[in-house]
C-alpha cells in the first residue's frame, strides 16, 4: 500500500518562497502521477481542492495550473522517493493546507476526485 507524507510547511513572509516535499512509501510504478493540491480556509472539508500541478513518473512530464505557472515547479527525487513543490513570490492568499496525491493509473487529471491516495496535508501560512 502506497502512502504519502508531506513535509516542509510552516510560516513564510510574503514574497518569500517555500519548498514542500511529498515522500512516498510502498511500491510505486511508472504509471504513477503525483499531484499537488491545496485547500484554503474557510472552505469546509469535502469542498473542491485547488489543483496546482502534477508530475508523471513515466517521463517526468509536468503540468501546472495558472496559480503555479511562472512562480513554481514540481520535480521528482528518485533517490529520496519524493516529489517536491517549489513556489516563490508567495502571497497571503497562498495560505492553505497543501496536499500531495497519487493517481496510480496515471491519467494526469486535474480533478481531486481522480486521485485515490492522499497525504495528510501540511499547513502553509503566508503573512504580509
Summarize the structure in words:
The protein is mostly beta strands. Helix content is 0%, strand content 48%. It is built from no helices and eleven strands. The chain has strands at residues 3-7, 10-13, 18-25, 33-39, 50-56, 62-64, 72-77, 82-87, 96-103, 117-118, 122-127. Strands 2, 4, 5, 6, 9, 10 and 11 form a seven-stranded mixed sheet that branches. The protein is globular, with a radius of gyration of 14 Å. The termini are far apart. The mean pLDDT is 92.
Number of DSSP helical runs:
0
CA radius of gyration: 14 Å
Largest sheet: 7 strands, mixed
Count all strands and give the number: 11
Q: Averaged pLDDT, please?
A: 92
Shape: globular
Which keywords apply here?
mainly beta; 128 residues; 4-stranded antiparallel β-sheet; 7-stranded mixed β-sheet
Short structural summary:
With 128 residues, this protein is an all-beta fold.
Topology:
Layout lengths: L2 E5 L2 E4 L4 E8 L7 E7 L10 E7 L5 E3 L7 E6 L4 E6 L8 E8 L13 E2 L3 E6 L1
Parallel strand pairs: 2-11
Antiparallel strand pairs: 1-3, 3-8, 4-5, 4-9, 5-6, 7-8, 9-10, 9-11
